[in-house]
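TOPIC: backbone geometry
CONTENTS: sequence, structure tokens:
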Amino acid sequence: MSSLFERRFVPPGADFRVSLDRHVLPFSPRTAGVLRAWVSLLLAAAGLAGLVARAGAQTYACIGSWGVQGSQNGQFFDPTGIAIDRADNIYVVDSQNHRVQEFDSDCQFVLSWGGWGPGRGEFDGPVGIAIDGNGNIYVADRGNSRIVKYDSNGRVLLSWGSFGSRKGQLNWPLGLAVDAQNFVYVADYHNHRVQKFDSQGRYQLQWGTEGTGNGQFLEPVSVLVSPDGVVYVGDFGTNRIQRFDDHGTFLGAWGSRGSTAGRFSGIGGMAMDRNGRVFVADMGNHRVQVFDASGGYLTRWGAWGKGEGQFDTPAGIALDSRGSVYVTDAVNSRVQRFVETTAATSTTWTRLKSLYR
């Protein structure tokens, strides 16, 4: 029952390391991160704690969060995957509590399901989650090497997968995505590939081998499918995002290891808004980055910390029908909600909260 995030903590300003399985990613905070932290403190002192540092014309402001570490309803232990249905109900994978929790559109607890084990409806460190066009929920049950399909009330409909490397088998399934035809794409982490299944779990195809070339992977962790069928795969080992068509034909890639704009230190979850912008949880850099559909850099926000708008290993990301962005802040055991504001508008958390209720 090893954690998705094996962590070594040291005081802020010293060397910081995040490990995912056998990888260790060194991260040393740069001047820009330190400056952002000081700006946040100054804004807080001025009563503007809800304003988040911006890049370019876009600003993302935190308008609330929920969760603390624990196992009670509404508490979390390593929240990872997150998905939102058409009614804006929010589903959070509570990885080390081995469960999924559902919240309504006001972020109030509704129900949970799961529990540790290999049995029907149980999990061993679940990570990814996705919702199909019929409201069915798919969860990547990492330690049990399977995908489990539920209805919206948490009742098991079916499951598929077993440990291995043959077609349809899985070795640490992490990220999940469902396309407009309800085909399910799985980031098969230790098998360095993506597998595609139909909604009944029947194997369709796969692509990827271990490596750093185009179409190859070093531990893929997340998958995103656009409305027009482009498949984005977040590759943890190479710190890049690759684009494919729905048959696995390589279309392009962007990203490399680093902390400057457009670079990553451990890619996490991805999401796309109605304008085709791709939001990426940049775990080791403790931030979210935003790109256009082809990988052109747009903006970013976040820095290491426990304060409002700060992160300690952001893992999953999803958007609701209003365009609000929800981020699972794994080590801080919470979910934060952000909204986009204009660069020219300086506002307060209280005012933003009233606008987006």
Summary: DSSP finds two helices and 27 strands in the chain.
